[in-house]
Design goal:
There is one protein chain. With 125 residues, this protein is mostly helical. The protein has two domains: 1-86; 88-125, no CATH class. The protein contains three helices and two strands; from the N terminus they run H-H-H-E-E. The protein has a two-stranded antiparallel ribbon with strand order 1-2. A hairpin with a 2-residue loop joins strand 1 (107-110) and strand 2. It is elongated. Residues 16-73 form the Complex 1 LYR protein domain.
């Protein structure tokens, strides 16, 4: 009877830890900035991998509580980061630096819109 209670507690703990891990990864993907998204993902993975062999139930509970606090902090930070969105980077599939247009020129964003750098006046054609 006692062993089944321990097994149930371990399963619940494992479930809550995995749930926290997934929640942190999901919340990290909500950052507007690519670098912040990658940092949140890397930091979450590293922290969980560092403590994956932890056996002490009290220490596990402390780590889960710390993770929940960080999840709440990350939720606040993602909302704030969405207020200050910038143009997407090239690694995110943004237009800046991609070769597009009629002649394969590079498109750069200006305040007035997108202008192709390879566009030539019709006089030179």
């Amino acid at each position: 009877m006692a062993s089944s209670a321990l097994a149930t507690a371990a399963e619940t703990s494992g479930f809550s830890v995995r749930s926290l891990y997934r929640s942190l990864l999901r919340e990290g993907n909500k950052f507007a900035n690519y670098n912040f998204r990658m940092y949140a993902r890397r930091r979450t993975r590293d922290a969980f991998h560092e403590h994956q062999h932890e056996k002490d139930p009290r220490r596990i509970q402390e780590l889960v509580q710390k993770g929940l606090k960080e999840l709440q902090m990350m939720k606040r930070q993602t909302v704030i980061s969405q207020f200050y969105q910038l143009d997407r980077l090239v690694v995110e599939g943004g237009k800046t630096g991609q070769e597009t247009g009629d002649h394969g020129g590079i498109v750069r964003q200006k305040d007035t819109g997108y202008v192709s750098l390879s566009a030539q006046p019709s006089v030179f054609r």
